[in-house]
Write a structure and sequence with these properties.
Layout lengths: L1 H26 L34 E8 L8 E3 L4 E8 L10 E5 L5 E4 L4 E3 L5 E8 L6 E11 L2 E12 L3 E8 L3 E2 L4 E10 L2 E2 L5 E6 H4 L3 E3 L2 E3 L4 E8 L4 E9 L2 E9 L6 E8 L2 E3 L11 E9 L10 E6 L7 E2 L7 E4 L5 E7 L5 E3 L1 E5 L6 E3 L3 E4 L8 E5 L3 E2 L8 E8 L12 E6 L3 E2 L2 E3 L4 E7 L20 E11 L23 E2 L14 E2 L34 E12 L11 E2 L10 E8 L12 E11 L5 E3 L1 E3 L16 E8 L8 E9 L5 E8 L1
């Protein structure tokens, strides 16, 4: 810009001649002597002087501003988008002397116009000149505003304004086209459009947006935004499986244009197995919670580059139809389906009455040489049956009567009528008479576990069916799940047939009294309110001893039921109860007998077993006379198996044997044995055994 103004000065100098140039320099303060008005100033400005310096009157510095077309240099105050203006400013002193190296700040209404550079500040050159470019804020800008120039000259603020108008421009698009209107599958091409501003190709860069239907659906990609170069915007289009006519739209400032690209469909070259959901099906008619008698098997049709191919017909068949397996509910023959936009194609397999593995075979209709098959599906009953449902405890007698937080595990193993593990994810529910228990678990490979934790409630007034009259500390745990009643499959067809013996099940309940009979206060798990038929007797072989059902809640029909089992966990005390017998008589038939063993029953304070793992140690106070006439102590000990409390919930406690041994006895052994019991927590209790 400085060169532009310098050229203007040189041009004016040639026109006026050397004499007038000298006059202008003197008038603008370039020479000595008195002052006078000047009509010769840099850059084509009309004046560059103030008042006569001899008059004694002081004037402030002055800014003179003009607006010209940035392209042609013609004076104008009409700003249009795409046709910027140049704001020129001349700064002179009060004497008319150009002021160099002064910072001029330009401001205006930013909603109508913006500056380039955006900072809005410029520095005057040696001739006091500076300039800045003014651009319309956008194509739709319309109105009038002022440009204000402000400069500080030695503490004096100098301001000048100049008005301008903003007119909206007209943008049109033309010649939108693709370099290749017919594109091969997964190919690329360029798409270009001409952008006109007020009837001429825009030289000002404008941003053009491109889009297409296939781009929006992910089947193609196109450059979203492109700036024009010499009035032309060019985008790149790439197919990703569009396979058809795709309309491309170019738009800028509310104006748009469209063209069409025809994309060839890809050729299928392979079918791949994707999934079977679920991979294990229940036999027809045996589905339940979390089980299904059908599976959706999915394949994917792809081309040679492994991209999905849509709209391809695929034929399906089965490796076996034993038991009446169906495809899309058809009992025989092949079925067809068409791949979707993602190349996926599915078929539904429905289980029959026979457990078996089965494969789905998929063939491309257009090319029968392209064949694949699924991994095998498994057809089984999938749901647990009562005769194959079991519950076990990690530790039956935990130290929980006087201690909170002692734990053990309850584990269920569940199998279907063929002995196969039930479907993964089968839910097992748990309820306990006392203490605490996790509410449920889900099976994996037919098994799952929950944690039982000692704490209140601790049963205290039960009437357990026992000769040992246990009334406290015994917690019944019930595990149950949605399953089926067991039956005797006489013809081995894996289906219940009329006339076959089945074991009807009534409602499960928490058998607090351990007597297989529901009583008031015992929690019942109702299966169906309509089940009011009398229930059969328990099997005589004892297989349902821990699978109690409430009388009068059966239905007389084979089918679904809550399969169940109970176990009793003992909240054992570390305190020893009444030991029986506590007194023993040494053999008297032969005086010289020196060794004997004595067995006793040891319960806890509630007549239950002591905590599993509790250790027994013995201290001897048993004496005898040896062959030298000395009185000595016999040794006492617990042999392996008797020195710890076993893992059991048997009422009445556990049995232990203590061995008493002397050497060269001449008298019978008499006295007492002190027994100390140390629980797993380290608590100690004890008792004495008398030897007579």
């Amino acid at each position: 810009m400085r060169d532009f103004f310098s050229a203007a000065v040189r041009s004016r100098a040639r026109l006026l001649g050397s004499t007038l140039i000298a006059f202008a320099l003197v008038s603008c303060g370039g020479g000595g002597g008195g002052g006078s008005d000047s009509t010769s100033c840099p850059g084509g400005f009309l004046t560059c002087t103030g008042t006569d310096t001899d008059s004694g009157t002081t004037q402030t510095p002055k800014i003179t501003m003009t607006l010209v077309d940035a392209g042609t240099g013609v004076a104008t105050n009409n700003l249009t988008s795409g046709k910027p203006l140049t704001v020129r400013a001349l700064l002179v002193s009060a004497k008319g002397v150009p002021l160099a190296n002064r910072v001029v700040t330009f401001t205006t209404n930013s909603s109508l116009a913006v500056f380039e550079p955006t900072s809005g500040t410029r520095l005057t050159d040696a001739n006091g000149l500076t300039s800045i470019t003014l651009l319309a804020a956008d194509l739709a800008s319309s109105g009038a505003a002022e440009v204000t120039a402000t400069v500080d000259v030695d503490g004096t603020s100098v301001t000048q304004k100049i008005a301008y108008s903003v007119s909206p421009g007209s943008v049109t698009l033309s010649n939108l086209s693709a370099n290749a209107s017919a594109l091969s599958a997964y190919g690329s091409t360029s798409v270009s459009v001409q952008v006109f501003f007020n009837g001429a190709l825009t030289m000002t860069p404008l941003t053009v947006s491109f889009s297409s239907g296939c781009d929006n659906s992910g089947k193609a990609s196109i450059t979203k935004s492109v700036a024009t170069v010499n009035g032309v915007a060019t985008a790149t289009y790439t197919d990703k499986g569009c396979a058809g006519s795709d309309i491309i739209t170019a738009s800028v400032q509310g104006t748009s244009a469209q063209t069409t690209i025809n994309v060839a469909a890809p050729k299928a070259s392979n079918i791949g197995y994707v999934s079977a959901n679920p991979s294990t099906m229940a036999l027809s008619g045996t589905g339940g919670a979390g089980l299904s008698s059908s599976s959706v098997v999915t394949f994917k049709v792809v081309d040679s580059t492994n991209n999905p191919v849509a709209s391809k017909a695929v034929s399906f068949d089965l490796s076996t139809r034993v038991g009446g397996i169906k495809l899309n509910n058809q009992a025989s023959g092949t079925v067809q389906a068409t791949s979707d936009a993602a190349g996926l194609v599915s078929v539904t397999v429905s289980a029959g009455s026979v457990p078996t593995p089965v494969w789905v075979i998929a063939t491309l209709v257009d090319d029968p040489t392209i064949v694949t098959q699924s991994t095998n599906l498994t057809i089984s009953t999938g749901r647990p049956t009562q005769d194959r449902f079991s519950l076990s405890l990690g530790t039956f007698n935990i130290e929980g009567w006087n201690r909170d937080g002692t734990t053990t595990n309850a584990t269920v193993h569940a199998f279907d009528r063929l002995g196969n593990p039930v479907a993964d994810g089968t839910v097992i529910n748990f309820i306990s008479e006392g203490a605490g228990i996790q509410p449920s678990c889900v099976t994996a490979s037919g098994a799952c576990s929950v944690t039982i934790t000692s704490g209140e409630f601790r049963p205290r007034v039960d009437s357990e069916p026992s000769t040992f009259a246990v009334t406290a500390g015994r917690v019944t745990v019930l595990a149950y799940a949605q399953g089926e009643e067991s039956f005797d499959d006489l013809n081995q067809n894996n289906l219940y047939d009329s006339g076959e013996v089945f074991r009807d099940l009534g409602d499960a309940f928490v058998d607090n009294t351990e007597n297989q009979t529901w009583g008031s206060g015992e929690r019942e798990i109702q299966f169906s309110a309509s089940n009011t038929t009398a229930c059969p007797a328990y099997p005589s072989d004892g297989r349902y001893a821990n699978a109690p059902y409430k009388a009068g809640t059966c239905n007389g029909v084979w089918g679904a039921a809550h399969v169940r089992r109970t176990q009793v966990v003992v909240l054992s005390s570390h305190v020893v109860g009444t030991v029986t017998p506590s007194s023993f008589t040494f053999p008297t038939s032969v005086p010289q007998v020196c060794t004997a063993s004595f067995t006793f029953r040891m319960p806890d304070a509630n007549n239950n077993p002591m905590p599993a793992g509790a250790a027994l140690t013995a201290t001897s106070n048993v004496t005898y006379t040896n062959d030298t006439g000395e009185t000595v102590k016999a040794t006492v000990s617990f042999p392996p198996g008797s020195n710890t409390v076993s893992n059991t919930n048997a009422p009445g406690g556990t049995f232990h044997t203590v061995v008493v041994e002397g050497s060269k006895c001449t008298s019978r052994l008499t006295g007492s044995i002190g027994v100390t019991v140390t629980s797993p927590s380290g608590s100690v209790s004890g008792f004495n055994l008398s030897i007579n």
